[in-house]
Design brief:
The protein is about 45% helix and about 15% strand. It is built from 24 helices and 17 strands. Strands 7, 8, 9, 10, 11, 12, 13, 16 and 17 form a nine-stranded mixed sheet that branches. A four-stranded antiparallel sheet has the order 4-5-3-6, with helices on one face. The longest helix is centred in the N-terminal third of the chain and has 31 residues, at about 100-130.
Length: about 600
């Protein structure tokens, strides 16, 4: 404080005078050897804030005047004491410390602090603006493409991001697509956003392009994301009670005592149980070995429930191994009637036999034939279940290799086999019987396309299955148009029903034989026998026949006998020999003689 008072007393009284000696100071050098002239204004590189210059005024003229310095207008100050790097900071600190006048030091420090505050405020404002204006996915994509170089695909961007970053960008794109007119960038099209979404799906979920395109064609973007996420999660573990040997209530109590957290499945199933946690192996308990229950997915119950086999019927399971659905059919039939379990694979027959014996099925006959010609071996079944072999696209949660291993050729081969098997199943079924077709695939080529193919070649119709849930089958998919009754079939999806992807359709046979060359157009219903008879006996058909008879009568005016409706109905007239009716008489006589002999 004594030094402060001394400096205030020595303050000059005349205007323009200075208590310091008028010694000409040389410009100071920085550590790098650059000249730093006094009174110059440094440019701020960290911010774009521009400050107005006061002019080339010496510090002594400003601070060593008789009039006190007015610091009210801080906006017009040229903050020459603010630097842009550490080297210049040290130079200015040294310059301030060399000043003997306390007021000059204080003012310079004040100006410097004020400038630093404004610089920090400008940087904070810029940071807030950058945070509020969040770059869009397309903007990120363009920046990444620019860094990677021209010619790089959009997929190259996704490989540089983590799964969390990809998930966030997918959600952002879906948000924009949900309200595209308001949320999109100017000049951007929907296809550009869909291209980014497809690229992120490929990288995040690791599907091949064919499988992903099939999913995107089937669902809108938001639902496709939910479907892909659900496929990554495991399905609930379920078991089926074998009512031939046990009751569900008793089984629950027994398994609970063994350390299983188990509850009844849903109201739609009276035999299903869901296992939440187990302290013992599910397939290693005494009850499992005794055949009291079967480890089976919940979606496998549905085809058998749609088939609804009755007691004392003749039933065929055309693709039976390993026996989950076959044993359920025998359970519903209460071990009565006859159940044929067929499978083309001999090694799989062993597991089928083992499960039949373990669960106590006694009404089953196991056969090892190719299902494509089964109608030549046995026919006239009351009900037939065809759980056709497929690509397995609905069970990706159990086998991740299906994501990349299945291509278009695999789907076409499976579809052709499924068509042949379904035609054989219909031919082996009796008139009025039922055929249930099911696959563990969500691809349309293996589901609706196969059923539509059969509807155009056999006298069958689709009937209700009685299942309490499930989405209706597609009647329109891309450019294809299917029979309207296909909507009575049912689809099951993991993101909707928490089950594997599955398809079930129930057909009823109307009459034997194929439809031959008269293929119906997609969308036209099969013609029932009663409807066909009504068309033949209609007035329009009778008028056409009468007109044809009149025309033929005019053509035969040269003496030939007139044709009648009765004559038209005769398909082939009797042949006449050259010798008249004598040959016919002789033939009849010979036949009588043979009979007598």
């Amino acid at each position: 404080s004594h030094m402060v008072q001394k400096s205030l007393l020595e303050k000059p009284t005349k205007k323009g005078a200075s208590s310091k000696k008028d010694v000409k100071k040389e410009p100071k050098k920085s550590k790098k050897g650059e000249m730093v002239p006094k009174g110059s204004t440094m440019k701020l590189k960290k911010s774009k804030v521009a400050y107005e210059e006061v002019g080339d005024v010496e510090d002594d003229e400003v601070f060593h005047s008789e009039e006190p310095y007015d610091s009210g207008d801080d906006e017009g100050i040229a903050f020459e004491d603010v630097s842009s790097n550490e080297d210049n900071d040290a130079i200015f600190d040294e310059d301030i410390n060399e000043d003997d006048d306390f007021e000059v030091k204080a003012e310079k420090h004040r100006r410097r602090l004020l400038a630093e505050g404004r610089l920090a405020a400008a940087e904070a404002k810029k940071d807030i603006e950058e945070r509020n204006v969040k770059p869009t996915p397309l903007h990120d994509l363009e920046e990444a493409d620019g860094e990677e170089g021209e010619g790089e695909e959009a997929r190259g961007l996704a490989n540089t991001h983590s799964s969390d970053e990809l998930t966030e960008r997918i959600k952002e794109v879906l948000r924009v697509l949900g309200n595209f007119s308001d949320e999109r960038e100017e000049g951007r099209t929907r296809d550009e956003y869909l291209a980014v979404l497809r690229s992120d799906f490929l990288s995040l979920f690791e599907y091949n392009e064919f499988m992903l395109d099939c999913i995107l064609d089937m669902f809108p973007p938001q639902e496709a994301f939910e479907f892909l996420e659900a496929m990554e999660k495991p399905r609930p573990t379920t078991i089926r009670t074998n009512t031939i040997k046990a009751k569900r209530r008793d089984l629950v109590q027994t398994l609970t005592k063994r350390g299983m957290n188990i509850e009844p499945l849903e109201k739609w199933s009276k035999v299903g149980l869901q296992v939440f946690e187990s302290n013992v192996p599910i397939a290693g308990t005494v009850e499992y070995l005794a055949g009291h229950y079967m480890l089976q997915s919940a979606v496998s119950f549905l085809p058998v429930m749609a088939l609804a086999p009755q007691e004392h019927e003749r039933v065929l399971d055309m693709s039976a191994a390993p026996g989950g659905k076959t044993t359920y059919i025998a359970q519903l039939m209460k071990n009565t009637g006859v159940l044929f379990a067929n499978d083309v694979s001999e090694p799989r027959i062993k597991s089928l036999n083992a499960n039949l014996q373990r669960l106590g099925v006694t009404n089953c006959i196991v056969t090892n034939y190719d299902g494509t010609g089964y109608e030549k071996i046995m026919r006239n079944f009351d009900r037939i279940l065809l759980d056709a072999p497929c690509t397995g696209s609905g069970i990706i949660s159990r086998d991740k290799s299906i994501k990349t291993s299945k291509q278009h050729d695999d789907v076409q081969r499976a579809s052709q086999l499924q068509r042949t098997l379904l035609l054989s199943a219909i031919d082996a079924c009796k008139v009025g019987g039922y055929v249930v077709y099911s696959t563990c695939s969500f691809l349309v080529d293996e589901d609706e396309a196969v059923v539509d193919y059969v509807l155009r070649r056999r006298h069958v119709e689709i009937v209700e299955m009685g299942l309490p849930f499930g989405r209706p089958g597609f009647t329109k998919f891309r450019h294809a148009r299917y029979h309207p009754s296909i909507q009575m079939s049912r689809r099951f999806f993991p993101h909707v029903h928490n089950m594997d992807g599955f398809y079930v359709c129930k057909l009823k046979k109307l009459q034997d034989g194929s439809m031959g060359g008269e293929e119906r157009r997609p969308g036209s219903a099969p013609v029932a026998p009663k409807q066909k008879a009504a068309v033949v006996n209609s007035d329009a058909v009778q008028k056409a026949k009468n007109a044809l008879l009149k025309k033929r009568a005019q053509d035969n005016a040269d003496g030939q006998p007139e044709l009648t409706l009765k004559a038209l109905k005769t398909s082939v007239p009797p042949k006449r020999s050259r010798s008249g009716d004598s040959s016919a008489v002789k033939a009849s006589g010979k036949s009588k003689g043979r009979k007598k002999a």
